[in-house]
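This entry is set out below.
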Amino acid sequence: MKKRLLLLLTLILCVSVTACTSRGGQTETQSLAQSDAESRPEKTVQEDAGSRPEKTAQETEGTEIYRDFRVDNVFHSDSEGDIHYNIYIPETYDGTKPYALYFTLPGYGGLYFQGVAANIKTEEFGFEAMKYNEEMIIVAPQLNDWGETSADQTIALAEYFLEQYNIDRDRVYGSGYSGGGETMSLVLGKRPDLFTAYLHVSSKWDGAYEPVIEQELPVYLAIGRNDEYYGSEQTQEAYNALYALYEQKGFDKEKIDGLLVLDIKEHEYFTQRGISNEHGGGGLFARDTEIMGWLFQATKEPSHGGSINASLSGTVPAELEYIPDKYKSPSEHPGTLEKLTYQTWESFSYEEKTQELTKEAWVYLPYGYSENQEYNVFYLSHGGWSNETTTMGTDQNPRSFKHVIDHAIEDGKIQPLIIVLPTYNNTSGRDSGDYSLALRLTDRFHNELVNDLIPAVESRYSTYAEDTTQEGLKASRNHRGFGGFSMGSVNTWCTFRYALDYFRYFMPMSGSYSTDGEYMAELVKESGHDSDDFFIFAASGTDDFAYSAFKTQIMAMGSVSDGTFRFADNEADGNLSFLEREGYVHDAIASDEYTYNGLRFFWNREQ
């Protein structure tokens, strides 16, 4: 115990999101949590009063506000004594609508004896959680240890909130960092039914495994490879134990992977973000959209206790929606088109890098675009005999499809997003008019796309990519899509083949690649991904000359016996959708309508 306390006291200098860097031979400790707090004024009690439900006799309300959290509230439990906690309640909460609930348990530096609100002053999990659901109550308990007493107090507090507040029982989330993870594992060993999903960060597992398995509670285990306090071996052991119990239950790998994630970060993950201490740097996970996104995308399904529905998107409609006529005229809240110039290399000698090219892409930014908001990005490729201005036009001469997107975002049919309009034309703007040449250029476009275009776009605009390193772009793949019509569809299939590491969503339209479904499945296996890692929204028209071959490819993919491709209208049930429009031909009307419908699905999950 003494050794444990000594090391924890040492690590407290580098806990949570505290960055430890070396400058001029001296160590500089810079708290990112503190720097965030300094930029945000505190509210008065009166300013925050509107969103609070009435307190009960069992509750003493705190009198101070810190970054929208009411601090040092006390729940007087009959069985567990006084339990201190900090709480964020959205201003919109009035008790008439069920809200999600999130419990975040801190490490040693956030325990109550460290000071009131020490947990939220040193850790960012609660604040980052606000970004994922505007209708979520966030509770940050301040307990006194990481053992059974704190576990029982956490259970009592969770039961109290579920009883006293209008909570959506299918969206109750938990996370535990360091010692808080030990506590939460004990909680889950007793009452996993209280939670929908759990994030275990830079910690070890002290609780029982069997109740978690019985409940089928989704668990994400994240830690640094060389965590200075725990190492990663104990986390690996917990994962192995849980995995083995699921196997004993008869679950296959696909089902287990949907419930259990092991994420051991190499040292570069921390150093690239300016932190050298892996245990203290575990607080970086709070700002990792892949990790936190996993947690808050989970919902309970009635068929089994807590399996995860990790979709970011909605439900594909049974039929394509026609674009409303008014959408083809300018809207009152238009987005903007900007020209992006970037450097790349001649396509056929790309690897040798002997001929540098300066190319242009057009970028659509939604109305109200803000650097303070993260946006999904959709890369939309033109077809044959076209270029980067064909689909949406330019800032001086926008085409009707630009107006369509403006209206759809304005009406809430499409979530605000960034659309990038590149060209696979190489040394001439007429390259796409040569069918044979265009086929070869789309097969090589992935080099430019991944190495030059995406970094140029996502270093300039606000996206989910924390940085534009290969690691950063891969980590944000869930927030990136690629699509195109005709030869742009071929370009989409090529991107699916070569760049699945960087994209989750694909929208091929009226352009086939291979009618061999087994071959397409093999491409997925070669990429190292599985069937849960992508979704394909495909569309064509019955009078389109490309329809027959395109539909044949889609049907062949859906018929692959190993389940690599599964037809479904949502991500929870599959990864492949095909819609067709009776009588549509191979033209811009069809292209615009298919794209409009696809973007109504991508990143548009019903809340």
User: Anything to note?
Assistant: The first strand starts at residue 18 and ends at 23. The chain has 19 helices and 20 strands. The longest helix spans residues 435-460.
